[in-house]
Specification:
Shape: globular
Number of helices: 8
Bound molecules: ligand MTE
Order of helices and strands: HHHEEHEEHEEHEEEEHEEH
CATH topology: Sulfite Oxidase, Chain A, domain 2
Distance between the termini: 21 Å
């Protein structure tokens, strides 16, 4: 893999859209709806932080063809608030990491090739009874709500977005794991015909991530199915994407097809590629540097300045207790 460290954040960007503007648009929509180092080849996470020139031609219509469109917008849960404006939709939907479609930030058009139906989700492993369920049946069973979440990439950029979706606990309850299960291992789709990045043999496809059961059933763990009051666009992880906002963005896997309950700690995609840089816990901490760069500050997309990064990405009051009996260094809580 090439080590390519381009600092896109050194370039100026336009200002973020204030939430009031976004909310006005949301009302309109509602009315309308009434009707590592892998050597030699490839590209390393954080080695591809391209500048905003890559977001030139955003589509205003991203996501509108999704058959679940009638479900949105959903009511916002006011418990989760932001300390910054919501990121402009165009930026959040055209500046993406999705290695299945390439290692640049500009994959949103390529991602449109992903078929979203049929989409079957498997819940298996250490569960009372393994289950396969179609995405529309799953969506009908889940309590949908909207949440404003901050999203902090390990590459030191961040955004703030309105996700729609459901608490991951509702999905764990549906799966009925055995009491001996300790982790959830999650898997992204594998479809080499539409996802050309999956033909790159130096990556260990499919994309895998994992959480402990305590994390997966924590109130903040969210399965995002919508974004900006619409179905979540393909490039952001349609139809199912994880959002665990106190952890670095690489934990937030996209295009999920399987939740497997297990008593063994899963090895995630990036951990397998470069475990020294990307670990299992990946909790945000400004004081623990990535081996190749500082995590002290972040570039907020759409804002021409860096801001200090917060412990647990600002969600410490919610999640610090999860880790109170662990040794931050020995257990590599922040890596
Ligand atoms: N999920 C899959 N399947 N493949 C990926 O390459 N990239 C991760 C995460 N989920 C990735 C993924 C990384 S590194 C980040 S920062 C976030 O997605 C980016 O999410 P966004 O594009 O919605 O901002």
């Amino acid at each position: 893999m090439l080590i390519r460290i381009k600092r896109g954040w050194e370039l100026p960007e336009s200002a973020a859209t204030p939430e009031s503007v976004y909310l006005g648009r949301r009302q309109l929509l509602k009315a309308a709806a009434a009707g590592p180092l892998l050597l030699g080849t490839g590209s390393l996470l954080a080695g591809c932080d391209e500048g905003p020139s890559q977001v030139a031609q955003a589509s205003e219509n991203v996501g509108e063809a999704d058959p679940s469109a009638g479900l949105y917008p959903v009511e916002r849960n006011p418990r989760y608030t932001l300390d910054r404006p919501v990121t402009e939709e165009k930026l959040a939907t055209t500046y993406n990491n999705y290695y299945e479609f390439g290692s640049s930030k500009n994959i949103w058009q390529k991602a449109q090739a992903l078929p979203l139906r049929p989409w079957t989700v498997t819940l298996d492993g250490m569960v009372e009874e393994p289950m396969q369920i179609g995405i529309d049946e799953l969506l009908a069973k889940m309590p949908l709500e909207e949440r404003l979440y901050r999203h902090r990439c390990v590459e030191a950029w961040s955004m703030a977005v309105p996700y729609s979706g459901f608490p991951m606990k509702a999905l764990v309850d549906l799966a009925r794991p055995l009491s001996s299960a300790r982790y959830v291992r999650m898997e992204t789709f594998l479809n080499r015909e539409v996802a050309s990045g999956q033909n790159a043999a130096w990556y260990p496809w499919p994309y895998i991530e994992g959480l402990t059961i305590a994390e997966a059933t924590h109130e903040l763990a969210f399965i995002a199915t919508g974004l900006y009051g619409k179905p979540i666009p393909k490039q952001n992880g349609a139809p199912l994407r994880l959002a665990v906002p106190w952890k670095y963005g690489f934990k937030h896997l996209k295009g999920i097809v399987r939740f497997e309950f297990t008593d063994k700690r899963p090895v995630s995609f990036w951990e397998e590629i470069q475990g020294g840089e990307y670990g299992f816990w990946a909790n945000v901490n400004p004081e623990v540097s990535h081996p190749r760069w500082s995590q002290a500050t972040e570039r907020v997309l759409g804002v021409d300045e860096r801001v200090p990064t917060l412990l647990y990405n600002g969600y410490g009051e919610f999640v610090a207790d999860l880790y109170k009996d662990m040794d931050p260094v020995k257990d590599r809580l922040f890596m």
